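idk why but the lab printer keeps eating my pages so im just putting this in chat instead. protein + adenosine-5'-triphosphate:
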Amino acid sequence: MAQIRIENVRKEFGSFTAVQSSSFTIEDGEFFMLLGPSGCGKTTTLRMMAGLELPTSGEIYIDGEEVGMKPASQRDIAFVFQMFALYPHMNVRRNISYPLLSQGVPKTEVRTRVQEVARILKIQDILDKPVGGLSGGDRQRVALGRAIVRRPKAFFMDEPLGALDAEFREHMAEELRALHDRMGATTVYVTHDQLEAMQMGDKIVVMNHGVVEQFGLPQQIYDWPATLFVANFIGSPSMNFLEFDGMVGIGSDHVTLDGHRFAIPVLRQGAEGRLTLGVRPEHIRFSDAAPYRGRVIATEYLGTTQIVTLKTANGDIKARISSAVSVKAGETVGLEFDSRTLTVFAGERGHALV
Ligand code: ATP
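predcted complex ->
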């Protein structure tokens, strides 16, 4: 098990900066997600932690030891690739044994450890089968087996479920998480899928254009996004953004949109000019008496809830409400927002005022 800390780590490829100066800590035993859109630098960050890429500057610590310039082989970690590279001409037992045999571990111990891994992954009955004929899921388990048999300090996984179809992907995600909970080894996992990150992660780093936008617990990131980018990237449908011109000061407890006052959590920062009020779809209520109005453009039935798209004076928004509420396109409804969860964003990068 291991604590991993990166400090001001930066990576340049020629004149292109793939990762801007980044710092965060992964605590011992955490299941840690590196999340962001394609090209944001998450794979490069993972590869630097694993020792497959050297940082241009900054430090990487594993259990307090600076390892930034050490190769992967000296970091006692295991990397699980998306394309599970197995040796096709060997059977399952041999594939899992291989890393130990090549390290010179005695054969009797190899046998015991392979049995133990097979039990954890529930693959005892396929140990003597050739990997060529295995299903995708079993191949994935064997690849994991090969990674965990070495008992490394930490696991690094780059979109390990990316090649699987949706249903199976969900199943394997649950298995991976359960496996982590049984073994307790620090795991760093790259994904561009915000739902996967929210469901599996103890903590999440959200990256964009090589910059760490936010780092925290899934619930913190969902409830208190630090930037407009995070607010937009996390959640489906994503947060609504109502733009308005105005001024808020330290201690402000409301904003005024289209002449209507909305209570917000008390601000400790101020801003003026073009501001954005962020409202999650599930924090909007319909209320006949509410003076702020929206015209229903469309409804989308989702079983117990429905997504209602509305036109307001500050732009189109989506509300997630109970399907028991009857709404029709064309009608005008009063809107209330849950004041505890409203976020005001300001400035060029759209940082949240807190
Ligand atoms: P994806 O999910 O698409 O892999 P990512 O967030 O993991 O995206 P990276 O693979 O880290 O992103 O790449 C970040 C940026 O760095 C991209 O623009 C990529 O083209 C660039 N990049 C990555 N590796 C190299 C390299 N060896 N040489 C030059 N540019 C690179």
